[in-house]
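Example record

The entry below shows one chain as it appears in the dataset: sequence first, then structure tokens.
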Amino acid sequence: LWVGVMQEKALVSCPETAAPQIEGVLGDLKAPDQLKASAIKDRLVTIAAAGKSVETYEGVKLACDDSTFRPATTDGVCKLTGESASTAIHHLVSIGIPDDVGYLLHDSTAYAYYVGEDPVSFAATHPCEAEDIGDMMVGTLQEHRRRGYGKASASVATSEVLRQGKTAVWGTEAGNHAAIRTAESLGYERFCWMFEIRVS
């Protein structure tokens, strides 16, 4: 089950068999923002679980375009190439950098912040079906956080996405306040709250 809440509407994706029950829970809501209430989320989990084990995820999506972008200082950021990407993957594997060089470099929007000769942060885009979207991914090694490295990498990657005529979109966990602050400091604005229930 997936719920996306925007300012004036909400989108719900669920198995067809659960649709009547989900509609019963959501049918009386007056505003999409009410979906964030824990009682509503608990009822959705109960329906989706049906005796199975579930994981929930809450996230936010932020977007940035030419009108809102506020670039940061980018000294120390280098573009990743076929040669440098393998080294970056090796150094940054613990923070979720894609381990496929082709995936990482698919649209030439992959950058890393270097301290000395070591990459400590990266920003790139996921391949995306929507051609006008640059779906950002950003990560910084734990011991190098809170120094502006992720912001610098994200700034260069965002600039490249915008140069390509796309809108930059950044998704993160709702509780990842540091990532949200970084995105907002670059001019990203929240446009969607997401709630997912994954059944196993």
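Notes for this example: The chain is about 30% helix and 30% strand. The mean pLDDT is 94.
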